[in-house]
Amino acid sequence: MNSMKILKKRLISTLLLLYSFITCCACGNGTDTLAGRMDRNLSGDGKDGVYQQIVIPPMPREASFAGEKMPLEYFDVYESLQREIITITHWHGSFLYIMQLAGRYQSMVEKILKEEGLHPDFFYLCVAESSLQPATSPANAKGYWQFLATTGKEYGLEINSQVDERYNWEKSTRAACKYLKKAFEKYGTWTLAAASYNIGMANVDSRIGYQSIKNYYDMQLPIETARYIYRAVALKQIMNNPQLYGFHLKAEDLYKPIECKEVIVKGSIANWSDFAAKHNTNFKMIKMLNEWIRSNKLENKYGKTYKVLVPVEGAREK
What we know:
Elements: H1 2-26, H2 34-43, E1 64-65, E2 68-69, H3 75-89, H4 93-115, H5 122-130, H6 149-154, H7 169-187, H8 190-199, H9 201-211, H10 223-240, E3 260-265, H11 272-278, H12 283-289, E4 306-311
Antiparallel strand pairs: 1-2, 3-4
């Protein structure tokens, strides 16, 4: 009986060894390196399944942010930018939507940046922050420029249960410009000013202190901040060369600015839905054009003046 068990175990072991040998042979004569797999995969004709051409996208020879050259001659800088370009080119649907939204908002944001004396590249920082949408981060930063409540109030934004100007395109963009200009005065470069927008000036000060370096590309930073400028530059590169990266949009695919009129509100609004009806629209449209409205009423205890965007007649028609 014992001899039969031993014989059975030996037979199973022999079969397992034979299976392993056959498998190794099928995988390339016993070697299965990454290079070997690449060669085999590239030689396939795709008949056995779905075949995608996933390649490393092209890299620019030169890159800059806000007029400051990015040192692509350093391998770590080159690889960091390449990582972001690869990531964004595979966002597909999300990036197409960003491009469509840019058709509606880019010229408006760039106009404000110019008025404030900032480089148009900061538009791409806004894209990196919120994808041009009224977003909320896990840290509870909100709006198109992702202000925390404390920072938003510090830079002049009204934030309460009825009004949150982090969702006001013009006011939040001007507040971001105010912050960035203050940071530039402190650090002397737009790249480090932008990094501080992500991580805060106190954190940048601390890292400058113990690293004895005042250059974004040479500093060790938290991963999100370390990728921050690269992501903005990658967005700039791809959004300015979409077809090069496989995104084929026609002019009519881009969303157009919505034609509006400004209605000045100095008092209270008992019901924004009633306000909308008086202006031949509905609360949905008022809210879409004025995301800063966070309630269906406006008490306006201090008699502030608000500019409310109202769609003109026919603006909703495609």
